[in-house]
Amino acid sequence: ALVVKFKSPNPRAREDSENYYLGIDEKHERQRLGDIGSEPTVDLSIIVPAYNEEERLPVLLNDVRDYVRNRRTKEPGFSYELIIMDDGSRDKTSEVAMEFARMHGIRELKAVKHVINRGKGGAVTQGMLCAQGRYMMFCDADGATRFSDIDELLEKAKMSEKDGLAIAIGSRNNQALSGTVVER
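RE: above sequence
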């Protein structure tokens, strides 16, 4: 994971407010983001770059919730964090995410709001830099892929792991083979 930090170009500095996330803790206070350089605290970090996704985000959130529920029946100790990187949206992306978390009791959801739009790459980079997972992944907010397909991706990463490092890359281009083609 540290390879990402040391090999990537220096990202734009965060605004002070971008160093915090909102969650559904009892105090409803902003909490400081983690750092990729610290020891992992969860099994999986899921980073979702989102720009004006208030309408499409609930599809992904439902999919992630179902995935976690199923995974925890097989692996009760499975832990994760779901980091929604709201990339300066002009709609209610963050509010929709927080309402979903409240409605379904998802304490693992962290909503980070960028002051300005950094683009998808900037949102992914900032999400990765604050991730606390042993494995980290990002997925698009539009729900165009089945989230449950990540099990195969994680398996490939685990198989290729060397010296604590691994990478696996999924692509929508292979969806025709897996039967998950989405037509718009």
